[in-house]
Amino acid sequence: MGAGKSTLGPTLAERLGRPFVSTDEVVEERAGSSVAELFARQGEPAFRELEERAALDVLARRTLSVIELGGGGLLSAATRAGLEESAFTLHLETTPEEAWDRVAASGRPLARDPEDFRALFEERRALYEAANASVCDLDGAVLAAAGVDVSAGTLDRLGELVPGMGTVELIADALVESLYGQRVRVALGTRLAGFHVVPAGERAKTASEAERLWSALRAGRSGTIVAVGGGSTLDVAGFVAATYLRGVPWISVPTTLLAQVDAAIGGKTAIDLPEGKNVVGAFHWPARSVIDPEVLATLSAAEVKNGRAEVVKTGLLAGERLWELETSQQVRCCAAFKSAICLRDPHDRGGRAQLNLGHTFAHALETASGFSLAHGHAVALGLLAALRVSGLESDARMVQEILRPPLAKVDRDGAWAALARDKKADEGGPRLILLDAPGKPRVGVAVEPRIVRAALDSLIA
Ligand SMILES: NC(=O)c1ccc[n+]([C@@H]2O[C@H](COP(=O)([O-])OP(=O)(O)OC[C@H]3O[C@@H](n4cnc5c(N)ncnc54)[C@H](O)[C@@H]3O)[C@@H](O)[C@H]2O)c1
């Protein structure tokens, strides 16, 4: 009571594209009177009975929803069992003082005396703390729902963050292994059963690397793959996890800015073919994404710049200048933004496509470079093209100012051929993700090939 559920709940539901249901409102609708009146007329036990029935009915609907459970709802063992069976529960953290400030003047039946209120708060605390996650704000709620942990020091808590009791096999590139391998080994302790090193960068995302990993893995179906590294390592390791033994769980532990704000989240995994980027892949949501912004301290300036391209992309989609935040806040906000979009559209059948802003150009440049052009560099260029085609010249100048990507040294015809082959192109010409304005993306816009070609050419030296 007074934690802020009725404020946060509807906003969370809107962000996840799900209906919002309040069990108090269901009770009031059914009883034809307010909770306060019910308490006064029939007493608390009668209200609790109605509340329990409402909660169980709402849970039985099985429609993906955000449900606000009344403050005392957890007192019912039947409701607790229903939640355990079919809900992911979030405890919205608050202090007794904060909660009292919010409810003191509300006239609620159980908020009439500050001492009684505090006693009730303490009495119920243990019930709330048994929730699947404790959060204190909207981004925290979205991240928890997506299985994403963002906080300094999580790398050392990896052992407790890998669900289950089975064995763990690690996949990392050689540089990340040398920097963080020992800490990860210590964190995973005796559960660690194997360590596999992949080449650094895009060279890891090949069919031969995937095959080598499939053969080297020893984990059974109860095992978990933990991938530690940048987006390239996560993409190949996630793909291997999706396909090995028809799918085993995996944990993404991103160590580049790009992977922390983007690649580690949402379950897209892939390898490249000479014909194109990410041509072979699978949707396989990581059981957890463990994001420790402190590991970014060892990242080279060039890799930070690559990651900033995806931060700017997210800021353009969100309509907020996220790139101006302090780094760990950038990571948290971008990770929450991507998590919400992917929870709304896990299989890329609608709104998720917006995350590919600038990527049609980026993938064409990467493919034409034989994958030697860094993804973040290509995305920075792709954003410029997308903004120019959108007619947002001043935003394009701003992005140019922030990211200053050098023009790509690739063959123009080769890049155009790659763009035409890209999965986003179809018979009517390439379909792009454009912006009406920052924060207002439009997906699948058919654009005349001549305009797309000119925009692509403007990115090439
Ligand atoms: N699956 C998705 O949703 C998704 C989203 C965006 C990008 N991606 C993919 O991600 C890939 C790019 O990933 P990336 O930019 O993270 O690069 P990367 O994985 O290629 O890594 C870049 C370099 O950074 C080094 N590195 C990693 N962590 C480090 C650390 N903490 N300190 C020092 N060095 C470190 C690596 O060893 C490597 O040399 C592309 O293949 C792209 O297609 C996937």
Structure report:
The chain is α/β, with parallel strands linked by helices. The protein folds into 3 domains: 5-136, 3-Layer(aba) Sandwich (Rossmann fold); 148-344, Rossmann fold; 357-457, Dehydroquinate synthase-like - alpha domain (Dehydroquinate synthase-like, alpha domain). It has 20 helices and 15 strands. It has helices at 5-16, 23-31, 35-42, 44-60, 77-86, 96-103, 114-129, 138-146, 158-161, 174-188, 207-216, 231-243, 257-263, 301-318, 327-344, 359-368, 375-389, 393-403, 412-421, 449-457; strands spanning 20-22, 66-68, 90-92, 133-135, 148-150, 168-173, 192-198, 224-229, 250-254, 268-273, 276-283, 288-291, 425-426, 429-437, 440-446. β14 and β15 form a beta hairpin. The longest helix has 18 residues, at 301-318. The structure holds nicotinamide-adenine-dinucleotide. The site of nicotinamide-adenine-dinucleotide (NAD) has 29 residues, from α10, α12, α13, α14 and α17. Nicotinamide-adenine-dinucleotide (NAD) is lined by residues 173, 175-176, 179, 200-202, 205, 229-233, 235, 255-256, 258-259, 262-263, 266, 268, 295, 298-299, 303, 306, 375-376.
List the helices and strands and how they pair.
Elements: H1 5-16, E1 20-22, H2 23-31, H3 35-42, H4 44-60, E2 66-68, H5 77-86, E3 90-92, H6 96-103, H7 114-129, E4 133-135, H8 138-146, E5 148-150, H9 158-161, E6 168-173, H10 174-188, E7 192-198, H11 207-216, E8 224-229, H12 231-243, E9 250-254, H13 257-263, E10 268-273, E11 276-283, E12 288-291, H14 301-318, H15 327-344, H16 359-368, H17 375-389, H18 393-403, H19 412-421, E13 425-426, E14 429-437, E15 440-446, H20 449-457
Parallel strand pairs: 1-2, 3-4, 5-12, 6-7, 6-8, 8-9, 9-12
Antiparallel strand pairs: 10-11, 13-14, 14-15
The structure holds nicotinamide-adenine-dinucleotide (NAD).
The site of nicotinamide-adenine-dinucleotide has 29 residues, from helix 10, helix 12, helix 13, helix 14 and helix 17.
